[in-house]
Structure formats: structure tokens, C-alpha cells
Amino acid sequence: MRALDAGILVCGECHQLEYLREGEEQHCARCGAHLHIRRPNSLARTWALLITAAILYIPANLLPIMTVNFLGSGMPATIMEGVIELIQADMLPIALVVFVASVLVPTFKLVGIASLLYSVQRRQPMSARQRILMYRFIEWIGRWSMLDIFVIAILVALVNFGNLASIEAGLGAAAFCLVVILTMLAAVTFDPRLIWDNTFDAEDDGDAD
């Protein structure tokens, strides 16, 4: 049973519970926020953010993410080139961390959110429990996507010794940062209650048959 079936609304800002009053606009008694049965245009907004992130994911991987200058010379490197260089330098643990945070995590988030949206809209054969576990995992893992950006920002700030040694961030880093931010926003704009709505609607259709 859903809270909506009991005539209860949840404030999206402070999580205050309010009884639904049909035919009138409601505001939260605690914080004054406008109450909605479900987040307005949740699926459309999430799709828009996700598609934009997927488009930016291409330059994020193809453009140089940073350039390491040593003694006046340096070669820009993409994410995968940086991982390969770390492996060649016998720094496998660091290479693994960079690969997971910069390649696997963003890819999983893009595919995972797209799967949730598609399954909710098309009523695909995925249980509500599987969907909600995937959603929670996407929310939890999202913070680790920024690890690579934090490392680059710290290196750019600390390693600045003129012609001796310096590190410069590339356009790939900016694109990758936007991908991370957009996927985090996509996870926020997606209303997980739609998962349960879809489940209950499917059960109702089954009973009707």
C-alpha cells in the first residue's frame, strides 16, 4: 500500500506528512513548500539531464583531461591514456581506482538511470525491489565519480613550479565534471515513488485481466 492510497502527501523539502485535500493547492505546514503528489515532469527532466550527460561523456573521454609538464615539455593525456601510463609506471592500484571512478562508475550511472527510466515507462519485467536497489546504489556510488576531478584540482593547485614541473587541466576534465554533475542531478530529479506506482499499476492491470 502506498502513502498516496491512504491520502497522505510527503513534502519534498522537509519530508513533513500532510493529508491530501482534493481540488485545492496545498503547501507544507512546516516549511511552506508547494506539495505535489509526484515531482512535476520527473521523467522528462531526468531524460533531458541524462541525454545531455551522455553527449558530454564522449568529449570527456576523447579530449585530454590533463597535461603534465616536466622541464618545459609535456604531453596531454585522456582518461584511458592516464590509466595506461599509471599501469606502465607499476602503479596498478592507483590505475584501478582511476579506471573505476572515471570510467566504470559514470558508465554504470548512465546505463543504470536509463534502465530505470525505461523500465518505469515501458513496464519492463524488473521487480520494484530490483529497481529501488539499483536507484539507491546509483545514489550512493555517485559521489565517487568526483574523485578524479578532486585529484586533478589538487594536483593543479599543488604542482606549479614554473618550467620545472606543472600540471594543467584539459577540456576533458571540464566535460567529465559536467557529466558527473548532470548524472547526480538526474538521480535527484528522478522520483523513486514512480517505481512503486508502476508496480501497483501493473498489479491492477493483472487483476483486471
Automatic annotation (TrEMBL):
InterPro entries: PqiA-like, PqiA-PqiB_transport. The chain crosses the membrane at residues 47-71, 91-120, 141-163, 169-190. It is found in: Cell inner membrane. Its main location: membrane. Keywords: Cell inner membrane, Cell membrane, Membrane, Transmembrane, Transmembrane helix. Pfam families: PqiA. PANTHER family: INTERMEMBRANE TRANSPORT PROTEIN PQIA (PTHR30462:SF3), INTERMEMBRANE TRANSPORT PROTEIN PQIB-RELATED (PTHR30462). This is Paraquat-inducible protein A. It comes from Aquipseudomonas alcaligenes.
